[in-house]
Amino acid sequence: MFSFISIKDYQSLLLNRQVTCTEAVSYYIKNIEQNRHLNAFLEVYADEALSRAALLDEKQKKGELLGKLHGVVIGLKDVIAYKNHELSAGSRILENFQSVYNATVVENLLNEDAIIIGRQNCDEFAMGSSNENSAYGVVLNAADNSRVPGGSSGGSAVAVQANLCMVSLGSDTGGSVRQPADFCGIIGMKPSYGRVSRYGLIAYASSFDQIGIFTKTITDAALVLEVISGKDDYDSTATDEIFEYKTESGLENKKFRLGYFPVTLNHRGLDTEIAEKQRNFLEQLPGHDFTVSALDFNLLDYIVPAYYILTTAEASSNLSRYDGLKYGTQLPAPVLDEQINLTRSHFFWQRSQASYHVRYFCFERGLL
Questions:
Q1: Is residue 213 part of a domain?
Q2: 53, exposed or middle or buried, with CB in 10 Å at 0-12, 13-18, 19+?
Q3: Is 314 contained in some domain?
Q4: Is residue 316 in some structural domain?
C-alpha cells in the first residue's frame, strides 16, 4: 500500500519503479473521498490529476529529465490562481468565477512536474484564524473533529495533516500558515516578504501577504521554497535573491545563531506549559552548536494593534474591487449604486442563500 514519508523517499520509489505517480494520485483521491467530512477541499481535480500523473509516468519511462517536484501531489488554498479553475477565496461573491491566468507559484510548480490535486477551503478572503468563516462551511481538525484546525489556511493544513496530499500552498498575512500548521502538528512556513511572488494571490493586505508552505518535513518545505521563490517581473516586491535548497549533509559544519525575545516567554498571554517547553528547548540548543541570544524588545504590546490598523485599511481597499460588475456574482437592481450595495451586502460573509430573500424584500420596500 502506498504511503508518503518525504518527497525524497517518494521520488526514490518512483525511480526504482516501486510506485507510480498514478498510484500516488489514486491514493490521495481515495483518501480525500473517505475524509470528506473534514471539508478540507472545495474541489478535487481527480480526472485532471490522474491524466497528468499518467503523462509524468510516461515521461519517466522515456528517460526524460524530471523536474524537482516530479510527481509531487499538491493542493492550493482557494486564494491562489490556477488558470481555467474556479477561484472563490472562500466567498459567495466570487462563486463560479474562473481564473484567467496562473499564479507565478503555480507556473513554477507545473514547470517542475508537480501535480495539482485540488482547491482547498479557507476563511473568507483569508480573514480568520479558525477556518469557521468560509462561505462553504467549517474545516475540521483531523486529530480531533471537535476542535478547529486554525486559519485562515485551515483546509490546506488539514489536507497535509490527514494525508490528503503531500504538500499544500497557503497564504499568511498575520499567521494564516504558521498558526494552522501548529494546530495540526505539521510544518508551516511563511517565507520572508518578497521571497515568493504574490502574483496570482488574492490580496488581503498587500504589504503583509505572502504565499506559504505546508509539508510533513522541513526538507520538503525547503525544496518547495526553492521552486516557488525568486524574481518575478509580475511582482515588483519579489526579491532577486535566489534561495538554494541544501540537504542536511550540506549543513553539517554550519554554525547557527538564534535570537529570542524574553518578553514573549514571560508574557501573561502565553500558556505556562508552552513557556516552560520553550525555555527547556532554548537551554538545550548550545549543546548542539547553536549560539543563542536574548534580545530586548519593548514594542510587543503595539504589534497587534498596529497590525490590525494597517491590515484592515489595506483589506478595505483590496475588497472594494468586488462589486459584481467585473467578475463574480451579482444581484440585479434598477440603479447601479443600489446593485453594488445589494450585491456586496448579500454575498460578502454569507454562508447560505436564505438571507437573500430577506434582503431583497427589504430592498424592494426601501428598507436597505
A1: yes
A2: buried
A3: no
A4: no
Measuring CA to CA, which residue among 137, 114, 184 is closest to residue 156? 184
* Residue of 152, 153, 156, 171 marked active site: 152
State pLDDT tens for residues 295-307.
999 999 999 999 9
CATH of the domain at 38: 3.90.1300.10
Per the annotation, the verdict on 68 as an active-site residue is no
In the chain, the number of structural domains is 1
Cβ atoms within 10 A of the Cβ of 15, count? 12
Q: Pick the catalytic residue from 91, 130, 171, 176.
A: 176
Cα 150 to Cα 138: distance, rounded to the nearest angstrom: 11
Taking alpha carbons only, the member of 46, 116, 80, 286 closest to residue 198 is 80
* Annotated catalytic residue 176: yes
DSSP state of 13: H
255 catalytic? Reply is no
pLDDT tens across 211-243, in order? 999 999 999 999 999 999 999 999 999 998 878
Does any domain span residue 100?
yes
Q: Look up the domain containing 76 and give its range.
A: 7-251
Q: Which residue has the cell 514519508?
A: 5
pLDDT at 356 over 70: no
Q: What residues does 167 pair with on adjacent strands?
A: 74
Q: Considering the candidates 77, 153, 156, 190, report the single residue annotated as catalytic.
A: 77
Question: Helix-strand-coil percent breakdown of the chain, rounded to 5?
Answer: 40, 10, 45
